[in-house]
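haha ok so turns out i had the wrong file open the whole time. this is the CORRECT one, sorry everyone. sequence first:
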Amino acid sequence: MKPTGSLITVDGRSALRFERQLNSPIERVWRAVTAPEELARWFVVPIEWTPSAGETFESFGAVGTVTELDEPRLVAWEWNGDLFRFELTPNSGGCLLVFTHVFDDRSRAAEQAAGWDGYLEQLEMHLEHGEVREGEAFTALSERHDAYAETFGLDPPPRLSD
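then structure:
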């Protein structure tokens, strides 16, 4: 498994950055990353929002705030101290998606990257097939984690079993 995300620094904080070339037009991808009923099909947590700049929302007991919005190209929000950003750029092949997650605990970067890789695969399945086959994007989660840990120069946690 070859990692698709990179570990960078944004304003002195750890950040993961993923780029995905998607075969769907920007308007379709925009709906998939902003409409609550679509997010519920592939994203890590449910988000009930409009979204609109400055809007607050609650998810899993934490309050988030939409910090930037430029439909259909950019939505960014803060939630539970972390920053999340979807940037969309139309191109001849569909849409380039750039996803960034800014957080504090660098030691969790491989774990976070492995998870986001799986969720972005679920987004691709959702866009291509209209459905996500439960768990399919996470079948190699431990291998994905280890590949990111090696790429990022982080020690993976010991495994209890293989």
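The chain has four helices and seven strands.
again sry for the mixup
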